[in-house]
Amino acid sequence: MIRVLLVDDQPLIRSGFRALLDLEDDIQIVAEAPDGEEGLALAQEHLPDVALIDIRMPVMDGIEATRRIAADPALAGVHVVILTNYGMDEYVFEALRAGAAGFLVKDIVPEDLLHAVRVAARGDALLAPSLTRKLIQRYVDQPLPTATDGVLAELTGREREAVALVAQGLSNDQIADRMVISPMTAKTHVNRAMTKLRTRDRAQLVVLAYETGLVVPNGR
């Protein structure tokens, strides 16, 4: 059973999401909160698998709530999915840096919401190729980073290669095909890179790959 926490200051949004998720046999809403502060307390109390958190709320916003969840070892199993009305904006990038597994726009179709909850519960990032392209575009006009060797020094050559492919939006199976290895080995390379780079998930791995210059957007 996938345990879900809903955190949004709009009761109508919460009730709509609850009505949809409650219809699924494998998903259970364990708690709801109107702001990040209460959401954090409920996450600590209920230890959900997935926390759907609005990015802009009173008292404590979704970015700070995400940051505190990511920093709490007791909440390592909580996968945060950010909810936004605005699509790919600066707040979303901050949330990804803070530790969110991905984000959803609130007008998402029901099937995609259900898929997203299940993907997040597995510990995978919500980084479809379309989202990865937007992440790439975010860095096209930024200054090229320098002095990245220290950040990436712990990675083996194969781990760097795997991270670069993650940053291009490839799945473990696709990475395996590209590197001519098994999917399990590809997953191992990615997981070891996340551990060494202290990233919670693939979303943060993609952000780091571009911020360190390991991957440079086309056109640079």
From TrEMBL:
This is Response regulator. The keyword Transcription regulation applies. InterPro entries: CheY-like_superfamily (IPR011006), NreC/VraR/RcsB-like_REC (IPR058245), Sig_transdc_resp-reg_C-effctor (IPR016032), Sig_transdc_resp-reg_receiver (IPR001789), Tscrpt_reg_LuxR_C (IPR000792), WalR-like (IPR039420). Residues 3-121 form the Response regulatory domain. It comes from the Bacteria. Residues 148-213 form the HTH luxR-type domain. The keyword Transcription applies. Coiled coil: none annotated. The modification 4-aspartylphosphate is found at D54. SUPFAM superfamilies: C-terminal effector domain of the bipartite response regulators, CheY-like. Keywords: DNA-binding, Phosphoprotein, Transcription, Transcription regulation. SMART domains: HTH_LUXR (SM00421), REC (SM00448).
